[in-house]
Design goal:
Elements (H helix, E strand, L loop, with lengths): L6 H14 L6 H8 L3 H14 L7 E6 L2 E6 L4 H5 L11 H13 L2 E2 H8 L4 H9 L3 E6 L7 E5 L1 H7 L10 H21 L7
Antiparallel strand pairs: 1-2, 3-5, 4-5
Helix pairs in contact: 1-3, 2-3, 5-7
Length: 197
């Protein structure tokens, strides 16, 4: 591919590459395709973000998992679910707890997770590994050399995060707690559902 493409063609080519990629496409990878420095592609990406903003055309250009990816607007999930014949993956409470512990404490061993949760977590870890949310980071340098777990790029992609720094802090969780409880209560009242304890 020529190193110097016309600006319009470069925009079109960058959009096509991002669209066709099977996952988020990093700026470094795009630079390899165009054989140019990062500084040359940053304005192209910025303009593509302006051309494909969220909540306007059904999809938008998102920066996620260290790269760029076209994503559908979340408010159109109802319509998109009509395309899917299979059931979407649903997290169990145990899977969410385990995934949150790993995301915030990584690298972490199975023993550390089980100590925090108070229950066996082998099955949950296997499921999260099989679904691609976790990866093995190596072995801890202690007796028994247990495996250390961390989140994968797919974890970032699935949750729409640029990197782990985008995770909410504990302070942000504390600020949301009254809103979440009130929101759940008002939703239960609106739907006339009895809360379970």
């Amino acid at each position: 591919m020529k190193a110097l493409l016309a600006m319009d063609e470069q925009h079109r080519a960058a959009a096509a590459l991002i669209f066709a990629a099977d996952g988020p496409l990093s700026l470094d990878r795009l630079c390899q395709f165009f054989e140019c420095p990062r500084a040359d592609l940053r304005p192209v990406i910025a303009q593509l973000k302006e051309l494909y903003p969220a909540n306007q055309g059904g999809f938008y250009l998102a920066e996620v998992a260290g790269g760029y990816q076209f994503r559908t607007d979340p408010d159109l999930a109802f319509w998109l679910s009509k395309l899917s014949r299979g059931r979407p993956f649903r997290f169990s409470q145990a899977a969410l707890e385990t995934l949150a512990m790993i995301a915030y404490r990584q690298p972490v061993t199975r023993g550390e997770i089980e100590y925090l949760r108070g229950v066996d977590s082998g099955g949950v870890l296997k499921t999260l590994l099989d679904k691609g949310f976790l990866r093995i980071l190596g072995k801890k340098d202690v007796p028994g050399r247990p495996l250390m777990y961390g989140t994968s790029k797919y974890f970032l992609e699935f949750f729409g995060l640029k990197d782990l720094g985008d995770l909410p802090t504990l302070r942000e969780f504390a600020a949301l707690e009254p809103e979440v409880e009130g929101g759940v209560q008002s939703e239960l009242i609106a739907n006339q559902v009895e809360p379970t304890t």
